[in-house]
């Protein structure tokens, strides 16, 4: 294999599966194009950043994880982002969850403000470290796409730490992907071969499965986030793969909500079906007029569905359960 091929064949978890990640250099022309886009989008992101609460950093095994927390509710909710965008993707639902719960979101290694990994690690270990740091003994996990896959792995590894599980466009380790899914990722990432990061980001922001056809506003937000944070796509990563979760899903007993956008890629619907079949205490909802990132497209509906599920599945005898009787 040529050196160039080696540079363009680093594999990562991206979106809801495996994509080819760029690890070369940006040409001057393409860097300049990306710089111009950043100049246009910076004012919008400065305004959004001012509205968000300041965050903190946690040192974890040689990396720094950026996290934010808000709210004083009795229940802890952790928002775990997908494999394309960092934790700012939750901005539109953040206020609703902060009002109801003690809510936490963080950037996984290399995303957003978190530093990239420099050695092999387990993603679930980072979440354990964060919960321990915040002195959270049980949490409700809301994981999107690969964040959902990671939430499943975490629940299997640490069942006593998980009170409820909400999976959004999630996939599950051990379940295969179609040729269509793999080819879609390859096509979107083809500009990596020419070091054209801007074109890759444009391809993914226009992907017909990430957002539904009528979700132009959500597409715009996604495009802005990607262009302002190209490191979400270009960072090196060294995640170790846990044991396949698919044959062990029956071990999950936490109340589980599975959300899928009706416009999401068929593979995600297939994974959702496999998850629902194997987790006894689970419920699947297909959300109309949304794609893979429904909380960007219909944040009010997303918040309503998830919060209602959490309220309806509170542990008997808990303060929150007694309060809502």
Features:
325 residues, alpha/beta, Rossmann fold, eight-stranded mixed sheet, 18% strand
Explain what the structure shows:
Helices cover 41% and strands 18% of the residues. An 8-stranded mixed beta sheet has the order 3-4-6-5-7-8-9-10, with helices on both faces. A two-stranded antiparallel sheet has the order 1-2. It is globular, with a radius of gyration of 19 Å. The chain has 325 residues and is of the alpha/beta class. The protein has a single domain (3-323), classed as 3-Layer(aba) Sandwich (Rossmann fold).
Please report the distance between the alpha carbons of the first and last residues. Answer: 64 Å
Quickly name the level 1 CATH class.
Alpha Beta
**CATH architecture descriptor text:** 3-Layer(aba) Sandwich
**How would you state the average pLDDT, rounded?**
86
Read across the widest sheet, the strand sequence of neighbours is 3-4-6-5-7-8-9-10
The major β-sheet equals: 8 strands, mixed
Portion in beta strands: 15-25%
Kindly report the name of the CATH homologous superfamily.
Alpha/Beta hydrolase fold, catalytic domain
DSSP E strands, number: 10
Q: What's the structural domain tally?
A: 1
Q: What is the fold named in CATH at topology level?
A: Rossmann fold
Q: Shape, please? A: globular
> Which regions have little confidence, pLDDT < 50, spanning 5+ residues?
1-52
Rg over CA atoms, rounded to whole Å, is 19 Å
How many helices does DSSP assign? 13
Helical proportion?
40-55%
Order of helices and strands: HEEHEEEHEHEHEHHHHEHEHHH
Query: Structural class, from helix and strand content?
Result: alpha/beta
